[in-house]
## 1
Amino acid sequence: MTPDDTLKAFLAAGTPGPRDATFELAVAERVARRRFWMSQLALLPWVLVACLLTVFALPVLRVMGPALAPLAEQVGMIGGVAALTLVTAGLLVRRFRPS
Amino acid sequence: MWGRAVIDTRSDAELVAAARSGSDAAFSRLVERHQAALRGFLRPLMGGGWAEADDLAQEALVIAWQRLSELKRAEGFRTWLMGIAWRKAFSRIRSTRRGSARDLAWLEGQGVPAGVQPEDALSLDRALSGLSPPERACVLLCLAQDWSHAEAATALNLPLGTVKSHVSRGRARLLSVLGGAHDAG
């Protein structure tokens, strides 16, 4: 074995095999986690907008509150169903998106 | 996974394009294709145990996934990925002030490579730890991974002449501990 061969063998010793499912899975998990946090961050501006709208709408709602009280239950139900539909649709689109 | 049994013949550029359009499977193929070279580069570069190097490799791959849209030449994915890994590794080496004072945990962790005498392995490890991080990176890419000098220069963001001199000097220093200094050049 020449010194060059020895050097080559020494330097190559840390190289893992061509396939490592555990490592690949760990990367996939990290990517999924990063994607989750990125999607949460992307929602942040919308949350701020919603908060601002609520703050501005509050005085109006206070004035109109008694008049709107009978409608509150129906509006809440429609909003809840709409939110649930949107979340389910989003999950289904992500799940079945062709790769 | 049905696709596992089939060898993916798509080029890196094609996989990058698919990954950019949201395909996790395509990015997984890229990880599968480059993980060995990436970890083989980082492990001896970092020293101090393989777990830290593998953690860094995972981090580099996640950054690559996140910044895939910034990659200008999709066919240069390998070089770009190694550049990300190098910058992360160099920053961590500097922050821990390990550099040349690297411990011998790497060698202890991996055992002696086949065909290498234990005393040679120890001497080589000491010599490798004596190289500066850029020298070590050049040696590992060009001598262990058989990269061209130009490709290493791109990945490490170093001038071509610097890479050539780092490789030449690093090889000479490593061979000198094997008594092969006359071969170096």
Note: Chain B has one domain: 9-183.
## 2
Amino acid sequence: MRYILAILIFITITLSIMQSWLFLALGLAIYSSFKYTATPLIFLAVLLDAYYGAFHTFPVLTGVSIFWFVLVEYISPRLMALHT
Amino acid sequence: MRAPLRHKSKYRKPARIVLASVSVLLLGLWLPSVFSWVASVVMYPIHATNVWLEESSSLVPSFIRDRQSLVKEIEDLNTKLVVASRSSVTQQRLLEENSKLRNLLGSSGESRIMAAVIARPDELPYDLLQIDRGIKHGVEVGAPVFVGRDVVIGLVVHVADDYSFVELFTTPEFEASVFISGPNVVATMEGRGGGVARVRVPQGVPITVGNLVHVPSVEPGVFGRISYVENRPTQPEQYGYITPELSISSLFQVSVGELSQISRSADEIEEKIRERIKTELLLEDIALRSLSSTTASSTDEEVSESE
């Protein structure tokens, strides 16, 4: 069930980006990053950049997702420490 | 000694992920077409859903699309409203200035006859209107007909006692000289029927949608704006199609002006004056006399008679 929900969230993020529902995409991305992990977002970003042909120039979305992954990995332990 | 090892192992996995991601990024930059092809295959179901949301006429997609387009339209209209409210202040100032200048020049306001439209082009043939004012109310053949204050739409062509017919400028084969503001050129406007008129200008004249079209022969004589420009580079001319600001089918009231509001050209006035001068010295009640029998004796008789 957890995995199904995660897959649904990531599909919704992808559709939201394609439909320009950026607030929804951003909100779900932040939620899924802390609820699960930010690694699938890198995979999503690569797919979207390849779909829109961004690899012919520079894949901005992939770069941002890598940066976001690093940031989440840095923030998450501190959030967990605060929570405990 | 175990703590530093745990510390290092904690960062090892994220570092590997970052390294792998950067490698994939570099690979993608090296083989962009391959990545695009793979993405199009993997993303096909999501792509199909996206297209369904954008183009389907089903309930959910059309609801989502309509809402988005309505929200966008509201934003655009709000912007236009703000711009229009500011330009109305300028317009009001210009109107007042124009009125003051006219008063200074001694121009008297023209009188108009209000009339209701009792038949329209849907009910009448061609581009004609029937109004409920006629000879009894002072309507004259050739008088201009206005919608609102400035917009002239046609001329009175037939007057009866209680009604009149108005021929619109958009009647086929109706021609008028017009002035197009923007490029500031004079052109001939021809009616095309169905509430549409057309101006013809040479290629190179920069007419655009929105240019105001004036009929200078009528005062004031704004006709409408260019709503479509037909411009084919292979043709020597381009056409601007004009539709009146207000739809003819929704006209209920018009105002009829006076014949004096239609100005004449200088040549026409000069021709009329010349014709009048030609007959100015002619006395119609004097008969020609025969002068062939005039002699000195007859002249003496006339002098003695007069004495």
Note: The interface with chain A takes residues 14, 17-18, 21-22, 24-25, 28-29, 31-32, 35-36, 38-40, 42-43, 46-47, 49-50, 53-54 of chain B (CB under 8 Å).
## 3
Amino acid sequence: MPQVAEKRRIVEQACVDFERDLRTFLAGVTRDFHLVDDAYQRMVVKAIEAAESVNPETVRGWLFRIALNEARELQRESARQGRLKEGFRTSMPLPTESPEGDGYAQIVSEEEKVIVLRALGRLDAEYQEVVVRRLQKGQTFATISEEMGRPLGTVLTWMRRALIQLRETAEIRQLTNE
Amino acid sequence: MTTTDHNDEQFWQACLYVMGELSEAQQEQFEDQLACDPELCDFVIEATQLMACAQTVDPVLSRQLVPQSAPAEAGTRIGRSLASAAALAACLALLFVVTRPVTPPATADPDAEVLVDAWLSNGLEFESTEATEDEEFTPEIDVPEWIIAGVSLAELELDDGSMPDDVMPDGEDMEL
């Protein structure tokens, strides 16, 4: 059936075109690099199996829904196997700690890291500190609040402003749009 | 709420989700929204990429950022040092007043000031940049002998400005 074959081709091509976004999305949802590859592969299989139901105009959103379902399913399986899902920082070790090497290479490039570093350096001092403590040192917001001697709400506000300012940096905007 | 505010709020929620800061119920609710909101999926992608970049920044470079941006952390330690040093200086000043048989001079003894300043600066410079988060700062109030001796040096000075030979043993270095 040519129509089904054509839809299948569209789905396969979309999986390739949106691979990086899908992997990044899966990394954010699972918070576990070990699950990203599995989730992505399962998503691709499921998507191809269900290709005849796809609307070519909304294939991207459709793929993300499948990806989300597969990620949630994998998380449930992992939880049943006793693997704890911690926050972003602890489940994704720093490159120097990861025996498999830099897992972030899948979703961020060296150029992007440099751009973010530069933008981070231009933030207000308090914002920089909160970002570094939370994302690089893996401290909880409660610990950051205690060590910086600031209320928890203030620390969260600083983190929010820092991330929004980073996002709005012209160079990072350009990366996102690309 | 403007569109920008709404986008910022969505982005922040995505960041909280990716950081694992949402409760289980909030996470479920957020994921239900993800299933039918492609724009929210894009915010999750943005949040993940941004935080992955910020997380993988060179730890050496991040330490350069933290000192300039972490006045509270260093300030807490320096504050404790200053408080201890101030207490020490007060003790030294009291010792100085008590040991002098005559009324205190109108002007402060420059030698004693130099020694106390040297002790204070040594305490601050000792602050290690490698200090870990769990390191507890315990102020030392163990006054070395040379400090106490140094404060009293002025009394022993000879008329020609030199010191008696038996005051400074040969080969003993003063740690500054």
Note: The two ends of chain A are 36 Å apart (CA to CA).
